[in-house]
């Protein structure tokens, strides 16, 4: 099987330099996705993101990517990996600042995490990821491994089968999802040393079905 061409969504909602370098080091062809036409040139899509849910959805809309990504994922059934805010944008709806429709690729909603005197937001730093359901994303990655997080909101998928990993910060939250060809991780694999690199390799080069 030929190595897939991997696209990275590049519409100003994330710094994609680290991810691009890792994927290039894996000897995978990388293309920046800024328009709907760019999706015709790739086989897999990485969707990173930082910032606020409503602003990110507005950037996608302005670039004409909302419906194009839905078509890529749901009609053509190509693999998609959301990272951090990129994972949250896969949801049906987000509740950050104002209720905003997401891409609707994985049914569920994004809500603010609970804060207390001992649990401060954002959740920043290394934390344990506990695998709940098997996924090719975590091939070769030991259960209870640590990954690097930066976020204040979390995605709660409707179907328990979509929860492939959880993490605890005060309460337990969903830290990785998979619904068919659509996947996501709340942590930053590009900031998570060798195991994060392995996860990206699994997505870019491994069999995902």
Describe the structure.
It contains five helices and 13 strands. With 209 residues, it is α/β, with parallel strands linked by helices. The protein has one domain (6-205): Class I glutamine amidotransferase (GATase) domain (Rossmann fold). The longest helix has 13 residues, at 193-205. It is globular. 41% of the residues are buried. The model has no long low-confidence stretch (mean pLDDT 95).
Itemize the secondary structure elements and their pairings.
Blueprint: E1 6-9, H1 17-25, E2 30-33, E3 44-49, H2 53-62, H3 66-75, E4 80-84, H4 85-88, E5 93-94, E6 100-101, E7 108-112, E8 123-131, E9 145-151, E10 153-157, E11 163-169, E12 171-179, E13 182-185, H5 193-205
Largest sheet: 9 strands, mixed
Order of helices and strands: EHEEHHEHEEEEEEEEEH
CATH class: Alpha Beta
Helix content: 10-25%
The share of residues in extended strands comes to 25-35%
CATH architecture: 3-Layer(aba) Sandwich
Radius of gyration: 16 Å
- Name the CATH superfamily assignment: Class I glutamine amidotransferase (GATase) domain
Strand order of the largest sheet: 2-1-3-4-13-12-11-8-9
E-strand count: 13
| Uncertain stretches of 5 or more adjacent residues | none
């Amino acid at each position: 099987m030929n190595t897939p061409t991997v696209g990275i969504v590049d519409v100003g909602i994330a710094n994609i330099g680290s991810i691009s370098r890792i994927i290039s080091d894996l000897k995978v062809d990388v293309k920046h996705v800024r328009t709907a036409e760019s999706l015709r040139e790739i086989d897999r899509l990485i969707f990173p993101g930082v910032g606020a849910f409503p602003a990110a959805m507005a950037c996608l809309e302005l670039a004409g990517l909302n419906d194009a990504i839905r078509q890529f994922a749901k009609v053509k059934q190509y693999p998609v990996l959301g990272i951090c805010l990129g994972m949250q944008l896969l949801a049906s709806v987000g509740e950050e600042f104002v209720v905003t429709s997401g891409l609707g690729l994985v049914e569920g909603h994004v809500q603010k995490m609970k804060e207390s005197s001992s649990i401060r937001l954002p959740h920043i730093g290394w934390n344990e990821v506990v695998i709940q359901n098997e996924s090719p994303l975590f091939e070769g990655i030991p259960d209870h491994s640590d990954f690097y997080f930066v976020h204040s909101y979390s995605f709660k998928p409707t179907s328990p089968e979509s929860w492939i990993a959880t993490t605890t910060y005060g309460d337990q939250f969903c830290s990785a999802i998979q619904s068919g060809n659509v996947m996501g991780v709340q942590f930053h694999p590009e900031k998570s040393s060798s195991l994060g690199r392995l996860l990206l390799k699994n997505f870019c080069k491994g069999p995902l079905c």
